[in-house]
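Supplementary notes (optional reading)

For those who missed the lab, this is the record we used. Protein: Fructose-1,6-bisphosphatase class 1. Length: 279 residues.
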Amino acid sequence: MTDIFSAIQRTAIRIKDAIDTKDIGYSQQENSSGETQLQLDIKCDMIIEEEFSNVASIHTIASEEKEKELTLHEDGRYFIAYDPLDGSSLIDVNLSVGSIFGIYENGFGAQNMVASCYVVFGPRVEMVFAHNKTKLHLLQGKEFEFVKEIRLNEKGKLNAPGGTQQNWKPYHKELVDSFFAEGYRLRYSGGMVPDLHQILLKGGGLFSYPGTSDKPDGKLRKLFEVFPFAFIFKTAGGEAIDGKKDLMELGHAHIHDTSPCFFGSKYEIQRVKEVYADN
Ligand SMILES: O=P(O)(O)OC[C@H]1O[C@](O)(COP(=O)(O)O)[C@@H](O)[C@@H]1O
Ligand SMILES: [Mg+2]
Ligand SMILES: [Mg+2]
């Protein structure tokens, strides 16, 4: 696992350099979710593929930017699904973006997840790695330094509601409004990594990306986005559900499958469960 941890650190330094260069033009290609890829999305995907190619313990990779899985080392144990650049449409407005890595053993699937990691590219570059604990690291020069363990409180103060409101179910709107009525503050940048990072570091709250009338299975992808953050939240003492079920109990049929998702501290997730159980 240390070799993977080091490889992710190297990708972070190279991706930071790629983000800092001027040209972020759109490519002519679409990814598997039908979104136009930025040249930067493709470049970050290549950086990660290159670094992981040098790690013998990695069997197969799956990327948001690749249609299919790619086997790297037949003798490896780990299967890594990653989103090379999450929130890439925020680059041109200079908001924070990230990379997300789900590390699975002996095949992809929530039940096989053994570790999870994300990197935030904001004013600073930070990395959160969850294995037995959830740990925060900060890039200083060319090295990541350990900062602290992340633990969520029982209840937070932030509310990050994703998805187009026009397409929310009425009970979902009531749920979101109920937190605002209780004094929760809106925090939503449109980048999953910084939005969830903020909730983790401020002690708790709720991030939701529900099923909507136009996207009944939500937008966020299970293997690269949903399961990695579910693992991180649970390791940090929070919870992660699809409305009813624990996200880590869900299966997947295809590497690009999506799921509605709710991440938060225990108090907020309990409320989500109550509202969704009745609907
Ligand atoms: O614009 P919306 O519908 O709120 O969606 C925002 C979500 O989409 C994403 O940008 C999807 O990720 P990509 O940028 O990797 O496609 C998440 O980071 C974010 O949480
Ligand atoms: Mg993403
Ligand atoms: Mg992406």
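If you only remember one thing from this example: The CA atoms of residues 82 and 224 lie 5 Å apart.
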